[in-house]
């Protein structure tokens, strides 16, 4: 199963995303957005592309917050995958999020705009960065997770 993960887009609609990302989204088995959409139209358009899972981010509007949870755990190919945006200062955020989800196979988070792809104590910890290169990232990135017997993450530079 191929999951395309994006976050921190900070745009209003899908036409403002990098073309390469839109191509990846159209081929995904699952699309995951980890918050800070900025525009509800973007949420609606992502849902039209196929199976969509998401959470809201710290700057998302009430209309997005009414439709999405702050956090959730997905079951994909027998794996438990936690989704959360994140909050507050980036220092120590990863540790706080890991403590919040003690019994999962992967944790997908955002908020920092900085890509992360590593395994900590058997758990995949993944941040796709900012799909539109918003500060402080400057580099446009997303992520792909291949989920089968294990979870393999890849940060994709757009």
What would you say this structure looks like, in words?
With 158 residues, the protein is an alpha/beta fold. It has one domain (2-157): Purple Acid Phosphatase, chain A, domain 2. The protein has four helices and ten strands, in the order E-H-E-H-E-H-E-E-H-E-E-E-E-E. Strand 2 (30-33), helix 2 (40-48) and strand 3 form a beta-alpha-beta unit.
How are the SSEs ordered, and which strands pair?
Elements (H helix, E strand, L loop, with lengths): L1 E5 L12 H9 L2 E4 L6 H9 L3 E3 L7 H4 L5 E6 L2 E6 L8 H8 L5 E3 L7 E5 L2 E5 L13 E7 L3 E7 L1
Parallel strand pairs: 1-2, 2-3, 5-6, 6-8
Antiparallel strand pairs: 1-9, 4-5, 7-8, 9-10
Helicity, in percent? Answer: 10-25%
CATH topology name, in short, is Purple Acid Phosphatase, chain A, domain 2
Q: Whole-number radius of gyration?
A: 14 Å
Distance N to C terminus: 21 Å
Tertiary shape: globular
From the structure above, extract its key features.
158 residues; Purple Acid Phosphatase, chain A, domain 2; 5-stranded mixed beta sheet; 19% helix; alpha/beta; single chain; globular
């Amino acid at each position: 199963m191929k999951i395309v993960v994006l976050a921190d887009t900070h745009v209003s609609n899908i036409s403002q995303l990098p073309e390469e990302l839109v191509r990846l989204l159209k081929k995904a088995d699952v699309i995951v957005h980890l918050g800070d959409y900025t525009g509800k139209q973007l949420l609606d358009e992502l849902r039209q592309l196929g199976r969509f899972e998401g959470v809201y981010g710290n700057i998302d509007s009430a209309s997005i917050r009414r439709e999405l949870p702050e956090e959730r755990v997905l079951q994909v190919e027998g794996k438990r995958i936690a989704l959360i945006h994140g909050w507050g200062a980036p220092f120590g955020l990863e540790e706080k999020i890991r403590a919040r989800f003690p019994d999962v196979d992967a944790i997908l988070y955002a908020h920092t705009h900085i890509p992360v792809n590593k395994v900590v104590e058997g758990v995949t910890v993944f941040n796709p960065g900012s799909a539109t290169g918003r500060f402080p990232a400057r580099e446009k990135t997303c992520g792909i997770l291949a989920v089968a017997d294990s979870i393999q993450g890849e940060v994709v530079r757009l």
